[in-house]
Design goal:
With 249 residues, the protein is mainly alpha-helical. The protein has one domain (44-234). 74% of the residues lie in helices and 0% in strands. It has helices at 3-19, 25-38, 43-62, 77-104, 107-111, 113-131, 139-152, 156-167, 169-172, 185-200, 209-243. The longest helix is centred in the last third of the chain and has 35 residues, at 209-243. The chain is globular. This is EcsC family protein. It holds the Pfam family EcsC. InterPro entries: EcsC (IPR024787).
């Protein structure tokens, strides 16, 4: 390994430890707080958010929303990750600006931030997948993207389960149903909504909405980018390990 690859591998190992931690008391407390915060929003708002997430997930599964970038081939990991970090910075800044504008505009335009931010996040994941050399036109790769998304924006309990699937993806993807409608989008959208509500609820409030929107969106995109990088690092190093020819004495 090169020094850069060794650094990436060390970061991956540390991240894997975090993904496998059991739910803490703070995690359980956060879920109870989340339930109370959800009660503050009108039911029509919950339904609108749920419907938006459902349609976005279906669009990704059927591949009808995004122009799929061409997978990058023949490039070493450090060069790929330089490009990935550049894309993360671009989408991070875009999301922060979008959050500031919609947060400053008040309650109703603040609601528009949910579908806009979701679209930015998914487009980032499509770009990252291509930069790591994966063709997102393929159904399993689109499901991999959704699993990365779910891993990032879920409770620790769900995160443990999703991580196990991703860590054994080459075997797990062989068990995937051929029907894209079989994806459990209900759990996906509920976990995502509950996760971001805690960070984004204050964006709907006057005066402070702009600042909250910018900071929350910035951090959420950074978190998503970091998770995606480590998920694709897992596949990269697993593939390298499987390609090593055993020494014959």
């Amino acid at each position: 390994m090169t020094p850069d690859e060794k650094q990436a591998y060390a970061e991956l190992l540390e991240w894997q430890k975090q993904m496998q931690q059991p739910p803490s008391m703070l995690n359980r407390l956060a879920r109870r707080v989340q339930a109370r915060l959800n009660a503050l929003l009108p039911e029509r708002v919950h339904k609108a958010i749920t419907a938006t997430i459902k349609q976005m997930v279906r669009a990704v599964l059927f591949g009808s929303t995004y122009i799929s970038p061409q997978p990058l081939v023949g490039m070493p990991l450090p060069a790929r990750e330089t490009s990935v970090r550049t894309r993360i910075r671009y989408y991070r800044n875009t999301a922060a600006a979008e959050g500031a504008v919609t947060g400053a505009a008040g309650f109703f335009l603040g609601l528009a931030d949910f579908p806009l931010l979701l679209g930015i996040k998914l487009k980032l994941l499509f770009d990252i997948a291509a930069l790591y050399g994966y063709d997102v036109k393929h159904y399993p790769e689109r499901l991999y993207i959704l699993h990365i998304f779910q891993l990032t924006f879920s409770s620790q309990h769900t995160r443990n389960e999703v991580y196990r699937r991703l860590a054994d993806w080459e075997n797990y993807c062989n068990t995937l149903p051929t029907d894209v409608n079989a994806f459990d989008w209900r759990t996906f959208q509920q976990e995502y909504r509950d996760y971001i509500d805690l960070a984004k609820l204050a964006q709907l409030l006057p005066i402070i909405g702009a600042a909250v929107g910018a900071v929350a969106n910035y951090r959420l995109l950074v978190q998503l980018g970091e998770t995606a990088m480590n998920c694709y690092r897992m596949r990269h190093f697993a593939k390298e390990s499987s390609e090593v020819v055993p020494h014959v004495s």
